[in-house]
Amino acid sequence: MGNERKNNDEVEIDLRQIFSVIFSKIVVIIIVGLIFGVAALIGSKLFIKPTYQTKISMIVLNRQSQGTTTYNDLQSSTQLTQDYMVLIKHRAVTGKVISELNLDMTNEKLSKMISVSTQSNTRILDVVVSSHDPYQAKQIADKVAQVAADYIVETMQTEKVTIMGDERGEAPLPTKPVSPNLKRNGAIAAILGLLLATAVVVIRFVMNDRINTSEDVEKYLGLSTLALIPMSEDLDDSKDSSGSKKKGKKKSGKSSGHSSKKGAK
Question: Is the pTM of this model over 0.70?
Answer without folding.
Answer: no
